[in-house]
Amino acid sequence: MLSPADSVEMHAMVNFMLEYHGPVYLRTGRSPVPTLFDSSYTYQLGYWPTMCSGNDVTIVAIGIMVHIALQAAELLKNYGISAQVINASTFKPVQVENFIERVKNTRVVVTAEDHNIRGGLGSLVSELLCEYYPMPVLRIGLKDQFAESGEARKLFQKYGLTAENIVQTVLKAL
After folding, report:
1. Is the pTM of this model over 0.90?
2. Kind of pairing between the strands at 57-61 and 108-116
3. How sure is the predictor about 31, in pLDDT bands with cuts at 50, 70 and 90?
C-alpha cells in the first residue's frame, strides 16, 4: 500500500507500479498539496524518507498528513522541541531496521494519519516498536468510527487532524 505526500512522490510511485510485479494499492486524497520533493526524487519500496530532522520527538505521518506534521514540527520549535518528521509513504512492506535506527534518537513517537488508527499507521508503528524497540507511541487519526464525507479542511478540524493537535499531543507526552 502506497500513499504519496505530494505530486512528485505520486509520479515516482506510479512509475514504480508500472514496473512492479505483484499486487499494489495507491491511496491518495483529493485535496491539492504543496510540493515537498524535487524532481530528482526516486521512490524506494518500503523506505520511509525523513522530511526533517529532530531529536526530541518523531512524528510519523502518511499522505497529506506529512504536510500537517511538518507544520507541527515548525510550531514545536516555539516550545524548544525538535521534531523529526518521517514520511510513511509505504504502508507495507517497511524497511524496519532503517526506521528503528532513526527513532532511537528521540523520546517519543507520534503517528499522524487521515485513517482509522486501528489497523492503520498507528497500529503498524506501535507493533514495530513493541517488537523491536519499545518506546511510547501516541496515535493521531480517526478513532474507531466511520467519518462522514465533506470538505477536507473541515473534516480534518473536526477529527483533530491538525498541526495544533499534534503539538498538544507532543507537549503532553514530553
Report:
1. yes
2. parallel
3. confident
